[in-house]
Amino acid sequence: MSDCLIEIGTEELPPRALQSLAQNFASLVTQSLADQNLGPGSVEVFATPRRLAMLLRDTPLQQAEQLLEKRGPALDAAFDADGNPSRAALGFAASCGVDIDKLERRQTEKGSWLYFCDKQAGRSLHQLLPELLAAALASLPIPKRMRWGERSDVFVRPVKWLVLMVDSEVVEAEIFGLRSGNRSFGHRFHAPAALEIRSASEYEETLLSRGWVIASFEQRRDRVRNLVEQAATRLGGTAKIDDALLDEVTALVEYPVPVCGEFDPGFLELPVEVLVSTMQENQKYFALFDGEGELLPHFIAISNIDSRKPEEVVRGNERVIRPRFADAGFFFAQDRKQGLDLMRIRLDSVVFQDKLGSLGDKSNRI
Q1: For residue 168, what are the contacts with CB-CB under 8 A and spacing of at least 6?
Q2: 247, 277 in Cβ contact below 8 A?
Q3: What is the DSSP string of 203-251?
Q4: What is the mean pLDDT of residues 168-191?
């Protein structure tokens, strides 16, 4: 049994699709291996903004020897009354690559038949892996694929490198015009140089220790949650950690670093829902609340860079949130000027669905 490593290095992947891409990719590969009697003992799935990867542990290196059976013509059609082989029998033997006397005569419930039986050596993992991987990538459910460069290959994002290994040995393959190897890449900014993966089992540790990359999505998500909670405690509040936001932020970073900022308390006059929605939907920030459930004029962002000048990162985020809140406040004020009655009337001009009327009609039905 061996450990098998597969890594597809890409440009930044869509954050909201990252988990499903990684899980579907791993499922397709493992199912294909299982269909070839090479199913792994366990699978570790890795997903970061720039990679889809998996470590298949305890994977057989070779298929078991297989018994091949092929049924030929019925015996009464295979030989004449004198026992001489017919053209059908000779043709069947030729198609199997053997002499007529190498065929078996077998009695079944449906009659007597000529059979060809042979033992075939199983194919190796090294032989099967490239074609199974290519098939899995081609069948991966991707709503919108893209092309890049001069090739006709398509994928969710341009593919930049390919790692394919069994234990410490590279499995030769060519996919998306790239030759497989044992060279991965770490964090785009902190460790941009190529990283040699000495062994498949060392993949995760190599990326973490030398590449500034936490490859496991689950471990990275736990780290983001812990960093946000610790930062919130330092600021004297409690963070609102929405699961969807947590997943999206995790999919945006390879090495999470917390950034704590504040905004003008005057914006707290706006509805809490407006401020929280702006922070979460637009900026991917975590909002903070005090012990009474009141929103605090602070936020926590997660950066993908451990900056040498963190104060500049903080100021940059604070500059961005200010106009966002100002815009939200403007539109909220405009909505209040119109009033609900005018808004309801305007629904009459918005089509809900053909043959079902307008949104105003829908509202009246409800």
Answers
A1: 198, 199, 200
A2: no
A3: HHHHHHHHH-----HHHHHHHHHHHHHHHHHHTTSEE---HHHHHHHHT
A4: 95
What pLDDT shows up at residue 65?
73
Q: Angle at CA 258, nearest 5°, toward 253 and 263?
A: 115
Contact 155, 145 (CB under 8 A): yes
In whole angstroms, what is the distance from residue 19 CA to residue 25 CA? 10
User: Cβ–Cβ contacts within 10 Å for residue 292, how many?
Assistant: 5
- CB atoms under 10 Å from CB of 365, counted, come to 9
**What is the C-alpha separation between 249 and 15, in angstroms, rounded?**
8
How far is it, in rounded angstroms, from Cα 284 to Cα 252?
A: 10
Q: Which pLDDT tens digit goes with each residue over 278-294?
A: 999 999 999 999 999 99
- Residue 130 backbone phi and psi in degrees, to 5: -60, -45
Burial class (CB in 10 A: 0-12, 13-18, 19+), 69: exposed
**Digit-coded pLDDT (tens) for 55-75:** 999 988 888 777 787 888 888
Residue identified by tokens 């013509």 is: 73
Confidence of residue 318 (pLDDT cuts 50, 70, 90): very high
Alpha helices in the chain (DSSP H): 18-35, 75-78, 87-96, 125-139, 203-211, 217-234, 243-250, 272-277, 310-346, 359-365
Determine the Cα–Cα distance for residues 186 and 49; give it in Å rounded to an integer: 11
